[in-house]
Design goal:
The chain is of the alpha/beta class. Helix content is about 35%, strand content about 20%. The strands form three sheets. A seven-stranded parallel β-sheet has the order 3-2-1-6-7-8-9, sandwiched between helices. A six-stranded parallel β-sheet has the order 12-11-10-13-14-15, with helices on both faces. Helix 1 packs parallel to helix 12 and helix 2 runs parallel beside helix 3. It is globular, with a radius of gyration of 22 Å. The N terminus is likely disordered.
């Protein structure tokens, strides 16, 4: 039985959350967990290509945030379609902090070293460990033998799983994990940022404005977008294209714009999260041409902004958030051409935002799952404790 504080309120369970980086969009969710649990958030530090994420932990109140000791190792990931630089986080410091903090429940965000450390702690201390996973059958299709071996071992070891959504649940089941061991949520955006309409950051002409937001890397599919846009302009369609993001492919993309004789193309560097609402209001259609994404938070943000979305079928969020008419194959020039032409002709409409799970819903599901593994009661119904946590956070927001 849990001890009580002097005012007779139950003490908060100690929880640890292990992530590689702290994403700005996750702050409301982490704040909700910190309000309910005595939360320790361990991370491996901001990767070199995520400069806009530095210092976001300063906005997370109520949690102890520690950068654990370890290394970030840059690696080139190659497949038949693109090569991309990724970072492997090897962070032995997680273990030291876990045994020092002694959490009653642990959540770990991947299937690799971080999860092995969490499971080792959980096994030795007899504490529940939840593995929070986002990869899909498509994103993991080229997983090598060594990684497959590690994942198979973890799939047998871990008892509790959290998935980003339907497509990541399918991947976990392909590893032999039972569906009733998986709590399926979504990647949720910070709805507070998009609650009020703001003035557009840019007023571009001609309209419509095709907006593409994301890092300028080969994986994000901007090359396919430029080719598709050039084909539309050759057919006489007039529009602007705004690409927002930074990355190693920018020079190559600018050269491709010149080679294709594309008109009305504008590049804008990555911007801070608080500026995103004005960016989305600058566009008429979000085009998300990714070749591989475990979810795709830009899709959430566009839906919350009220603009239509043309989404790659290789984004994990695609079948969950969008109807078939809003989904295209960026590797199929004919399909991309037809769907983009329909969007430019005004045949693409904003998506019903009720397809998105709110941060309140996601927080409630997570808190209920973690509490269930501790066998502690919690009211997660509308108006219950999870809802009060989110309401409190919104009131405290600047």
């Amino acid at each position: 039985m849990q001890s009580a504080t002097p005012d007779d309120k139950p003490s908060r369970a100690k929880a640890a959350l292990l992530v590689n980086m702290i994403a700005p969009a996750r702050l409301p969710l982490f704040s909700a967990l910190a309000k309910h649990f005595d939360l320790l958030l361990l991370h491996g530090g901001v990767e070199a290509n995520r400069g806009g994420w530095r210092g976001v932990e300063d906005n997370l109140k109520g949690a102890a945030v520690i950068k654990a000791w370890g290394w970030q190792i840059p690696v080139w990931r190659r497949n038949g379609e693109f090569q991309d630089r990724r970072y492997v986080h090897f962070t032995p410091g997680y273990l030291w902090h876990l045994f020092r903090f002694r959490p009653e429940v642990v959540v770990t965000n991947e299937i690799g070293f971080r999860t092995v450390a969490a499971l080792l702690y959980g096994t030795l201390m007899r504490k529940p460990v939840w593995v929070w996973w986002g990869g899909t059958v498509h994103t993991e299709r080229r997983t090598g033998p060594a990684r497959k071996f590690v994942r198979a071992a973890i799939a047998r070891w871990a008892r509790h799983w959290i998935s980003y959504g339907r497509t990541s649940t399918e991947y976990l089941q392909s590893l032999g994990i039972r569906r009733n061991a998986i709590v399926e949520i979504q990647n949720s955006a910070d709805e507070r940022r998009f609650a009020n309409r703001v003035e557009p950051t840019f007023r571009l002409h001609p309209r419509p404005v095709l907006l593409c937001v994301g890092s300028l890397t080969a994986r994000k599919g901007a090359v396919s977008l430029l080719h598709a846009a050039a084909a539309q302009q050759r057919e006489g369609r007039s529009f602007s294209l705004l690409l927002v993001g930074s990355g190693p492919e920018r020079g190559k993309l600018e050269m491709l714009v010149r080679d294709l004789a594309l008109q009305n193309v504008h590049f804008q560097a990555e911007c801070p999260p608080e500026e995103l609402p004005g960016i989305y209001q600058s566009g008429d259609i979000l085009v998300f041409p990714t070749l591989e994404d475990v979810w795709g938070m830009v899709a959430n943000e566009a839906v919350l902004s009220g603009i239509p979305v043309l989404c790659s079928r290789y984004a994990g969020c695609a079948p969950e958030l969008f109807p078939e008419g809003s989904i295209f194959d960026p590797k199929d020039p004919r399909d991309f051409h037809d769907k983009l032409g329909a969007a430019l002709a005004g045949k693409l409409h904003p998506v019903d935002p009720t397809r998105l799970k709110s941060t309140e819903e996601v927080a409630g599901a997570l808190i209920r799952a973690l509490e269930g593994s501790l066998r502690r009661p919690l009211d997660c119904r509308p108006g219950g404790e999870a809802a009060r946590v989110l309401k409190h956070n919104a009131q405290q927001a600047p």
